[in-house]
Amino acid sequence: MTSGVEKVYAEALYELAAETGEKERLFDELMGLAKIFSDNPGLCDVLQAPTVTNEEKYTMLKDIFGGRVSQTAYNFLCVLAGKGRARHMEGIAEEYKKMWYAENNIMDVTVTSVRPLSADQRRRLADRLSASYGKRIVMTEKIDPSIMGGLKVTCGDRMLDGSVKTKLNELRSSMKNARA
Questions:
Q1: Which domain CATH number covers 63?
Q2: Angle at Cα 138 formed by Cα 2 and Cα 98, nearest 5°?
């Protein structure tokens, strides 16, 4: 869950990106930066450290990201470092993603299955969900052998659970209630 700080920074960046025509580019860069920050918690620690001067932080950011990200993304990283907000990078990226997805009619969907879906299964499921929700689908797959079979599909705050495990639990529950 993201904080109010993360939403405020994401909204400010989104507005700037709209003004400069960089919304999509910044979306891509923020997703990459969030992964870098997630994979390298030490980077965040250094950018948050009160013993490291802002000039040292800016130099480090330039060495790491200079020429690899847009000037807007680089400047944004400098603002986060200077304000002691680097630890919020992942949440800011998540908030930006929500705005980008809403504007572009995209829905995040997580599909859990026992084994990876085939390309055809993935395409047919995405087509069905797209038709149902009227949105373009971005699908993330998870593998969970404990569901025994079937699928669990999470779309926003809704979960469609067609797993064998859930069906067996429902059957068990109805059999217990029938005895009572």
A1: 1.10.520.20
A2: 25
d(CA 20, CA 29): 15
Range of the domain at 150: 106-179
- At 108-162, the pLDDT tens digits run 999 999 999 999 999 999 999 999 999 999 999 999 999 999 999 999 889 999 9
Cα angle 27, 99, 116 (rounded to 5 degrees) comes to: 70
Between CA 122 and CA 151 the distance in angstroms is: 12
- C-alpha distances in Å from residue 64, one per residue of 22, 57, 77, 116: 21, 11, 11, 36
Last residue of a domain, one of 52, 77, 101: 101
CA contacts within 13 A on the Cβ side of 63: 7
Provide the domain count of the chain.
Answer: 2
pTM for this entry: 0.84
Say if residue 84 is in the same domain as residue 117: no
| Whether residue 137 is found in the same domain as residue 160 | yes
CB 42 within 8 A of CB 64: no
Say if residue 125 is in the same domain as residue 92: no
The C-alpha angle with vertex 69 and arms to 2 and 85, in degrees rounded to 5, equals 35
3-class secondary structure, 99: helix
